Structure formats: C-alpha cells, structure tokens
Amino acid sequence: MNTVADQQLHALAERLGHTFSDLSLLRQALTHRSAASHNNERLEFLGDSLLNFIIAEALFSSHTQLPEGDLSRLRAHLVKGDTLAQIAREIGLSDYLILGGGELKSGGYRRDSILADAVEAIIAAVYLDAGISACRDLVLRLYHNRLQEVDPKKIGKDAKTRLQEWLQKRKAPLPQYEVLEIRGPAHDQTFHVACYVDGLPPFEASAGSRRKAEQLAAEKALAKLDP
Predict the structure, then answer these.
(1) In terms of domains, do 41 and 110 share one?
(2) Which domain does 40 fall in, by range?
(3) Catalytic hit among 44, 112, 117, 120
(4) Residue 47 is assigned to a structural domain of this protein
(5) Could you report the per-residue pLDDT of 152-186, keeping only the tens digit for each?
(6) What is the mean pLDDT of the chain?
(7) 138 and 42 both lie in a single domain
(8) Domain count, the chain
(9) CA Rg, the chain, in Å?
(10) Residues 38-60: what's their mean pLDDT?
C-alpha cells in the first residue's frame, strides 16, 4: 500500500477549492478497498446520489425549456464514469490515490472506474465536512465548463453514430476504423486506432479499449467536420 502525507492532502484540497475541517474524510475518499477496510466505498455511494441531485438541479435551472427525457439524457452524460474519470485526470487525482499493492502493480491509479469512484467519494467527503452548499460549490466548479458547453442536440448518441449520420446526410462514404497498434500487457493494454473519412487525413486516438479509442477518433473527425 502506498501512503499520502497530510501535506499532499492539503495540496489536493487547495486544488479542489475546499478547506477540510476533518482531513480524514478526504483521506478516506482517496482510499481504495484494496488498501484498507476503512475505504471510500460508502462515500462513493453517497457521492453518487449527491452528484446526480446537484447536476439535475443545475440542468433544471439552466435548460428551462427542455423536457424531462432530454434533461435525463444530459444528466446521464455528465455523471457517467467516463466523464468522472476525465475530471479526475484534470485535477491530477491519480497522484493522491491510496491503493493496495496489487492495484499499484496493475496500474490501478490509471483505471477509469477507480478514478470515477474517488471523485464521487470526494463529493461526499465535502458534503459531510461542510454541508450541501459547499458540496454544490465543488460540483459546479468541477463541472463548470461541461455545464456551459453541453449540447442537448448531441447528447444521447455516441461519436461514431453521430459521425455516421453526418456523413449519411451528405451521401458521403461511411467512416472506416483500423487498429494501428496494441501496446502493453494483456491486463493493461492501450489501443491506437485510426478513423478514415473520405478525402481527409486519418484521425488517430488511443485508449484502454478499442471501442473507446474508436469513439475518440470519431470525436476528432466530428470536431473537424462539424465544429
């Protein structure tokens, strides 16, 4: 098991924009079940509900004309594991995770599910430390750009589907995908793929699964074709 000093926890708290009265809550939020019995699983449970509520509240206030179904799709997109893992990487959370020896060796600090769970646990830790107002402030800080940029017209369909539909509307050939390289051991592989769109250079991306890499490559193609 690795250790995280109080000084590091204070640095993370500063990055989060919250001063903890009880720093042990933050330590627990960062502790994976592989490291200790007193871990972040219960905090994750609470944080998941808090996150869903706060994001739902924000969407309800900012998208006053959207029907319930569209609001639900937006919320699902914003609170899904992939989004939480992205947020974790943006704040450098991997450097602060407390993991057991097995997870450390297998690269658990890079695993999306572990990162996403830790973000939810931190949300709960802030709530328990300072209440719903501080918790809401944290979530809105973490999600500020995403809440500003989320587009109801694009949410609900993945990038590959949206790229295919964009090309079909213009009677253009459908995109083709190719795995260019697979790197790393079987338990921690990285897939490097290319998306080919007629008349354009290939759009390349890498991820921990072929599906995710293809989605990222399709996102790059869409950013070029339909900015």
Answers:
(1) yes
(2) 4-149
(3) 120
(4) yes
(5) 877 767 889 889 999 999 999 999 999 999 998 88
(6) 93
(7) yes
(8) 2
(9) 20
(10) 97
